[in-house]
Design brief:
The chain is an alpha/beta fold and 375 residues long. 35% of the residues lie in helices and 16% in strands.
Length: 375
């Protein structure tokens, strides 16, 4: 089915008069409420500072509530870096860059997956919608306008699961009339959604046994990249702790789709080797932010196979690698951190010292580049 919409259906959308909602407060009087911003930070001071400054440069920042979730250190040795980040975020409220700032500090390390699940659930329950970023996502000056407009435009569309802020540089037909695409794979480093979609996620994935045995379901889950089914296998086997692969699984299971921008509205700086779980620098998914100089054009379009083919190519992983992972975690059921697993990791690290253990790095922009659970 073609994804080309009638030009008459192309609608430029820009937020109108709005104000920020406060914690647990309903804003009445017919004034639209800006979606709250949720920022997750950990131990990267420079990244955190850049993300906050970029958010503050958005015209809608002063009308928005910002929630900052700071995870605790994994070890006493890592406490200093976490404290340095907390010094940065503690200074934000006094600068009056946003309508309101709420800072939530975890006493102990929860990990990215549980931090996101708990934090987003909390904010969604209060506001019904949210815009979510990690500390390595640097938003464009119109990022908040784009996200709020998208949330308004697609809120009542039962086929749309989320609004993504990132997209790699894709090819488009010359006659493509608008600024977004509809696909089966979203963005997990900068995105937005609604409470009624978030509530559909089964974080336990209780039907995984059926999925694991179904060739048709696995193929459907891999429609925008052959890495997704194996990521879910690794998640369920305890080899990673990813909220994003489970979020995408729920989207596909519910026959819904993500909206991605034609021109990325965020620039990801997390592939510089500074991440806890991403030690190798990579430029594979670098992108530039383009100033459109006008409101984003949204539309209710169908899925275009032309774009999904590009997603599959971008996120393609060697079938041999995927088969070996499946054999390791599903067929042989090698226990994570058990004697066999430790031996295999030691041999791999000896040969490839830059290979890090498979964990939770939730960045859709790096799927397939390193062995992580990244939808």
């Amino acid at each position: 089915m073609s994804g080309r919409a009638d030009p008459a259906d192309v609608v430029p959308v820009s937020p109108v008069s709005r104000q920020a909602g406060t914690l647990g407060e309903n804003v009445g009087g017919g004034v639209a409420v800006l979606a709250p911003i949720v920022l997750f930070v950990y131990n990267r001071t420079s990244h955190t500072r850049q993300a906050i400054e970029a958010l503050a440069s958005n015209a809608l920042a002063l009308g928005s509530t910002l929630y900052i979730f700071s995870d605790g250190p994994k070890t006493p040795h890592g406490a200093q870096a976490v404290d340095e980040v907390r010094n940065v975020i503690d200074a934000v409220p006094a600068r009056r860059l946003f309508g309101k700032v709420e800072i939530i500090k975890a006493e102990h390390n929860k990990g990215l997956a549980m931090s996101v699940i708990d934090g987003v659930t909390r904010v969604m329950s209060l506001h019904g919608r949210a815009i979510i970023l990690e500390d390595d996502s640097i938003p464009a000056p119109d990022f908040l306008e784009y996200m709020n407009a998208g949330l308004d435009f697609y809120e009542n569309d039962p086929t749309i699961w989320s609004i993504g802020g990132y997209n790699f540089e894709m090819q488009y037909p010359d006659d493509y009339p608008y600024d977004v695409i509809r696909v089966g794979r979203g963005s997990s480093s900068a995105w937005a959604s609604w409470q009624n979609r978030w509530a559909k996620v089964d974080w336990q994935v209780r039907d995984y046994g059926k999925f694991r045995r179904s060739f048709a379901e696995r193929r459907r889950f891999n429609s925008c990249g052959n890495d997704c089914a194996t990521m879910l296998d690794m998640q369920m086997a305890g080899y990673c702790d990813s909220w994003a692969i489970r979020f995408r699984y729920a989207m596909v299971k519910n026959h819904m789709y993500a909206i991605l921008p034609r021109y990325s509205r965020v620039r990801n700086i997390g592939a510089d080797g500074s991440g806890t779980h991403s030690k190798r620098a990579s430029h594979r998914f670098d992108t530039q932010i383009i100033d459109l100089g006008r409101p984003i054009r949204f539309a209710h379009m169908a899925v275009d196979p032309f774009f999904e083919r590009q997603l599959r190519a971008k996120h393609h992983v060697s079938p041999l690698i995927l088969w070996l992972k499946y054999l390791y975690v599903v067929v042989l059921k090698v226990r994570r951190d058990g004697p066999i697993d430790r031996l295999v990791r030691a041999l791999l690290n000896k040969r490839h010292r830059s290979v890090s253990r498979t964990t939770e790095r939730e960045d859709a922009e790096h799927g397939g580049e390193v062995p992580e659970c990244d939808p």
